[in-house]
Amino acid sequence: MAVLDCVLGLGSNLGDRLGFFRAAARSLRAHGQIVGASALYESAAVGPEQPDYLNAALRFRTTLTPLALLEQQLAIEHANGRVRRERWGPRTLDLDLLWIAGRAVDEPGLVVPHPELLNRAFALLPLLDVVPDARDPRTGVAYAEYGSTLDRTSVRELENTRAAWLE
Predict the structure, then answer these.
(1) Which is the catalytic residue, given 17, 59, 94, 129?
(2) Is 129 noted as a catalytic residue in this protein?
(3) 53: which of 13, 108, 116, 156 lies 20 to 30 Å off by Cα?
């Protein structure tokens, strides 16, 4: 079986944000191996007015297919109280498949790399924490090149959190 080497983005702006991240990591371990964790970031919400988000990324290796991994992510979100009421609305937990090493996916319901990755510092910066040399599988361009020009005004890295939050 092929192993996916991927990066999952985590976001939360309701309840025990860090607790939801840790619960997601525990659940993910049943489906693969976490091999890296980013720092924690706080960012202003995109969409309707709501509390700031806590964001992070996990480097994850699994034998699941991308679509099967998406199904697991949705189940983990649901188990952690995620209710989908409005687009870009507040949430207890959001899990996004941001990137897969050397692979692009374009399936109904799943596009990887994440279509908004290069527009969202709260996703790209944590990804670069766990895979500093990550490249866009379609163009071969290093994401670090985009990171230097990305608007970071609404995102701040929380000090001394690099991988320390993951239990």
Answers:
(1) 94
(2) no
(3) 108
